Amino acid sequence: MNIKNFDMNLLRAFDALMRERNVSRAGERMSLTQPAMSNALNRLRNLLDDPVLVRTSKGMQPTPKAIGLESSIRSALSLIDQTLAPEPAFDPLTSTQTFHIATTDYVELVLLPRLIRHLKHVAPGVKIEIHALQPDIPELQLEEGEYDFALGRFVDLPGRLLSENWRSERLVCLVHSEHPDYGDTISESEFLQSSQIWVNGGQRTGLVDQWLRENNLTRNVVLTTPNFLMAPIIVAQSDLLVVTPLEVALQCIERLPLKILSLPMTLGSFEQDIIWHPFHASTLAHRWFREQLILMR
Predict the structure, then answer these.
(1) 3-84 with 171-268: one CATH topology?
(2) Domain limits of the chain?
(3) N vs C: which end of the chain shows fewer Cβ within 10 Å?
(4) How far is CA 157 from CA 94, 211, 274, in A?
């Protein structure tokens, strides 16, 4: 038998015939006419090289070969039905699913407190696991399901990934509140000459360095770190300057001896996007959690 040319509907016909032991009743089970069911039985006989059902004094009875196939075929049909069945409804109130997010500590700061409070009411059993966002876009981890989402600033996003803008912010400078060199403003030349921390935050190139390159300028970066929240602590104990999102700066000046200065150049917005792989996007749980992230903009 050539399986490539096998009509899968014949498996259901075989199952109906074995259950009913009667061509007419098997046809009714499958919503087929008696002639159509007889035709299916004849095709099965040809394919299996076996009568399948034979007439006896006790009515139609399956052959030994048919009996041997019955359990395996029924299991195969059940597996197909389970595989193709509609996805079960996702109930956030009872779910205990863990969602994995690759992101920066900046996003943790502005997202997690609000998200945790929100989930406590709408999905008390749902858990979140955060993974550090690296400079390279985690396409493979998203495709393989290691991460459900990544949140950050992404440049040259691969076409295979899906994305949605999550948050826009402007960048500002943070310096010690008693810094001897700066009052309430900083000039472009002062900015370029200052000793700085660059927070790469999962990026290869930041907005400031992109602007500097476009204008054939350089700055004096003495420390590079992936951590948005560690940089202000270092700045508060030094004469260094850091460029950081406004929300980070606002929260830090409440706790540390720091002050905010506007950047001396005009930059675009510090855009944060949600990215995910379409392979997982069709699941109800994935769609639901993405909606919760959007609510937290």
Answers:
(1) no
(2) 3-84, 98-168+272-295, 171-268
(3) N
(4) 35, 20, 11
